[in-house]
Design goal:
Layout: E1 7-8, E2 11-12, E3 15-22, E4 24-27, E5 50-53, H1 56-66, H2 77-94, E6 97-99, H3 104-109, E7 115-116, H4 121-129, E8 134-137, E9 144-150, H5 159-169
Length: 175
Amino acid sequence: PFLDQTRIDGWFWAAPFIWGGHPMAYNARFVAEPPTSWLDVLKPEYEGRIVMLDGAVHQVIVWGRVLGYPNPTYLRTDELDRAIDLAVSVKQRSRARLVGWDELPVALANGEAWLATAGWEAVSRFAAALGGEVRTTHPAEGAYPWLDSWAVVREAPNEKAAYAWIDWMLSPEAQ
């Protein structure tokens, strides 16, 4: 199913080159036990200590999973509305601050934030370089995978060069 993102009508239209996951990140100095649910950000002891990634797609996927949608990247309008409403509610109720990927490890490492509705395996390393004790956990509702791929856009100005780049990136020496 992961590669289905690169396929249309049975044809591959993109070449995957890197992938990972988005678990929940937390500061182990302030959060003794790993959270077990994305909704743990609503616990009173964490109010004002939450950061949420400022990307709308990320929020829809996380809260769509919490609502039980099996594939939150394919939602009906009413499901999308519910996911957005939940994201806004969580932000307001937890008094969360929105951050970008570059701010996320900093806010967690310095103790400004204790929990994040985002994560990435590298966030722990980035925070450690800043003196933080940041860990990641996979909540019961599930984390979600991501996949970056090389593709050639329609009417690319230099199509041959684009295919040559993709071929090289997929070669054993580049990998």
